[in-house]
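Quick start: what a row looks like.
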Amino acid sequence: MKKIFKLLLCVLAIATIFSACSGIKNLPAAATGATRARFVGTWTLNNITYEGLVRGSVQAIFDQAPPDAFTGSIWELTNSGNGRYTLNSGTSQTIFWSIVNDKASGNSSFQFKKIYQGDAPRKVTEGYSLLVDSNDGNAMTLRLPVEYGGKTGYVVYAFSKKR
């Protein structure tokens, strides 16, 4: 009786392991949301465009500089959530970033906070949230919603991965 019970227990354990692993592998990419690993690395902001906004209607992005100052900027994102972006002028900003997947809508957001010397990320309450349009690990498109004229327009950021 003990041998049968041990054999049955082993078969059940193996079946559970196989069914758990196969279920994860078969999930479509949309169901799993954006993964942090696809964002880690060094990115170049190649292009900024506008949807539903008049060019020039956005005077400063990320409360820092005009959009043109960000074209060509370098964004370094580590797996720990720490990061930095550097404008062509040499101005650099430390950030803390995360990815939020909204299961109800299926949308993902790239969120970041500006961190200044002495700040603890958990104590910084203001930041920026950009919708993730796409990220294949080599190219990424993020959209920042902006209220303009009673409607929502978007500032669209196109990045390419450097490494």
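That is the whole record. Residues 1-32 have pLDDT under 50 and may be disordered. The CA atoms of residues 141 and 158 lie 5 Å apart.
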